[in-house]
Amino acid sequence: NAGVMQNPRHLVRRRGQEARLRCSPMKGHSHVYWYRQLPEEGLKFMVYLQKENIIDESGMPKERFSAEFPKEGPSILRIQQVVRGDSAAYFCASSPPTSTYEQYFGPGTRLTVT
Amino acid sequence: AQRVTQPEKLLSVFKGAPVELKCNYSYSGSPELFWYVQYSRQRLQLLLRHISRESIKGFTADLNKGETSFHLKKPFAQEEDSAMYYCALSPGGYQKVTFGIGTKLQVIP
Predict the structure, then answer these.
(1) Distance, CA of B17 to CA of B109 (rounded, Å)
(2) Considering only CB atoms, which chain B residues are within 8 Å of A3?
(3) Residue B81: left if φ>0, alpha if ψ -120 to 50, beta else—which one?
(4) Confidence class of residue B10 from pLDDT cuts 50, 70 and 90?
(5) Would you list the DSSP string of B56-70?
(6) How far is A93 from chain B (nearest CA, A)?
(7) Measured between beta carbons, which residues in chain A are less than 8 angstroms from residue B49?
(8) Quick check: A29 contacting B, CB < 8 Å?
(9) pLDDT in tens, A49-107
């Protein structure tokens, strides 16, 4: 099992562009979580998804951010019209359906907005 | 609402000294508590959970419901313990896990 995969590992975008971050969960995992880590800060929950369903998006900014986890393919975190404050490490985690606390983390995507 | 508090951003101890990483939580029900660890250049990974009452890499954590705490302890720190430690809470079911802001443990040789 390859573990949780995230790509790209590093992403540079200019202000106003769109950023798309991908996450492939571990095999057999149907739950995906996205977290953001700002410099010198801890993990902040963003969104929790199951296949084709958003369970909890209470940590997502109201504008410009969206997430999906389609029936086929990876989960996507999309940030439209990026600003400098979006620069951060974005981590994805997945868990099996029977133990949602046991989260397996990906290596993260470091987004830099110039 | 659930909350996890880790009061120390940075904890420095000498090698061989005891370690205690503090974690307090607030939740009205009976949550599950966990510690996650992130070593330098590695992924965040689950270290231990209170239900299993196990010792991993010499670390233990006891859930104190009266004090709503779940402190992580190790009697003798090793240099390889230097890492970022996150306390986390799960209400169970399909609800989200809440992480603390993390404590950076620095073991001085």
Answers:
(1) 11
(2) 43
(3) alpha
(4) very high
(5) BTTBEE--BTTTTB-
(6) 9
(7) 101-102
(8) no
(9) 999 999 999 999 989 999 999 999 999 999 999 999 999 999 999 988 777 777 899 99
